[in-house]
C-alpha cells in the first residue's frame, strides 16, 4: 500500500517480509457456454441494509497476489567506506561474490476476464533495484493457487496486468465510469490487508479527483473505506458492482488506516489497462518544463488570482515548450482549451495528449495574456526522468544507480550512468555529447588515485566510443582477454578539454 503524507509518498506492501503498501455490465461474472453473465443482486440505492448480497457476487473475482523475489545482499559491513576493499575480500585476495536472499511481497488484485487477466498495482509486483522478480502467485478466495505471468506494467500510473496460467474459466468483474461517482456515494473495498485475504470494508466517496502531489497521475478517488497494507491493487466497487477505483495509497501517521484512502479512478485506469493487456506501447505527452503551483505569495507578486495556472521554473532546451516559445517565468493557465487548476494540473493534461498533437497553450507573461502553439513531445520513461532530475554533479556520491554495471564497479571501481542531453547540460557539455557519466568512484580504486570523479564524462575506452554500459563492458572483456591490466579512458571534465587516463583493473 502506498502511503501519502503531505506531498510525499512511499510504497508499503503487506506481509511480514517486505515492506513497500461508460456503463459496463456490473457484478462478478462467469462466462457461460452462451456467453451470458450470471444474474446479479443489486441493493437499492441509498443506505443499504446489508452489503452481503453484493459482496457474495463480487468476492470470487478478487484475488491475493504474492511474489517471490531474489534480493542481492551486501555482506561487507564496510560497504560504502574506505575499508570496503580491505574487508570485502576472501583469503585469496579476491572480492566476495554477491549473496542473495529470498524476499516476498503481498497485495491484492481483481480478475477482469474469464480467461484470467488480472489487474493490480505496479508496486505490488515491481522489485526494487537490488531484487529480481522470480515468481508471481495468484490465490483465489477458495485458497486455490495459480502461477501468473506479468503481461505489462506502467510505473507512471502504478498499474500492472497479469495473466493466470490456467485454461479454466474464471469469475470476473468490469470497470465502471468513475466520472459518475459523487461525494457521499457508498463504496466497498475488497482485498488482502496484512495478508488477511477476502477482507471487505465499506465507506463513502470522500472526494473525487483528489490531487496529492501534482504529478501526471496524482488524481484519486478519496474514500473512508478502511484500506491498509496489502490492499494495494484491490478494487473499489460502487453499489452496482462496478470497479470505479483501484486502491493505491493512504494518508497515515501511524501506518494503519485513519479513514483517508486513495484509489486510482477507473476512467484513468481502464484505458491504460487495455493498452497493457494488448501490448500497445503507452505514449504520453510531454512539454519539457518544470513547474510549481501559483502560491499566494507568487500570485501577489505577479498580480494574479491564486490557484490559477502553474508557474514555469525552467524550460528544457530544444523541448516542445522551448520550440513553442514558452519561457521561464510564464504562468500556464490553459492547455488545449482546458484550464490548469489544482485538480487538473498541467502534468495531467499534457500527459493525456498524444505525442505529435499540435495544441494551443494559454500563458500570462509580464501581466499580459499570450497564446502559443506547441507540438506535444513524447514523455521519457520514469527512470529517464528520475535520472534527468536527480543527477547533481556536486552532490555526494549516491548508492549504486539502477543502470550501473557490477562488472565495471568490480573491475574499475566506477559507477557509470547513461549520458542524457539533460545531464550533458548540467555538466556544461554539448547536448549531442556521446559517452557515459561517472556517478561515483570507489576511493580505493586506481580510478580515484588517477583523479577521476563524479561528473566526469567517459568519451572512449581503448579508443572505442562508449555510448552504453554494454559497450564499455565489451571493451573491458576484450582487454582482459588480451591479457591487459588496464584500460585507457578519454575523459571530458567540466570546464576543460578531453584528456586520456589509464586506469588499472582491480
TrEMBL record:
Pfam families: PDZ_2, Trypsin_2. Residues 1-21 form the signal peptide. Residues 379-389 have a biased composition (Basic and acidic residues). Residues 283-349 form the PDZ domain. It comes from the Bacteria. InterPro entries: PDZ, PDZ_sf, Pept_S1C_Do, Peptidase_S1_PA, Peptidase_S1C. It is found in: Periplasm. Keywords: Hydrolase, Periplasm, Protease, Repeat, Serine protease, Signal, Stress response. Its EC number is 3.4.21.107. Residues 377-404 are annotated as: Disordered. It catalyses: Acts on substrates that are at least partially unfolded. The cleavage site P1 residue is normally between a pair of hydrophobic residues, such as Val-|-Val. The keyword Transmembrane helix does not apply. GO terms for molecular function: hydrolase activity. Belongs to the peptidase S1C family. This is Probable periplasmic serine endoprotease DegP-like. It comes from Altererythrobacter litoralis. The lineage of its organism: Bacteria, Pseudomonadati, Pseudomonadota, Alphaproteobacteria, Sphingomonadales.
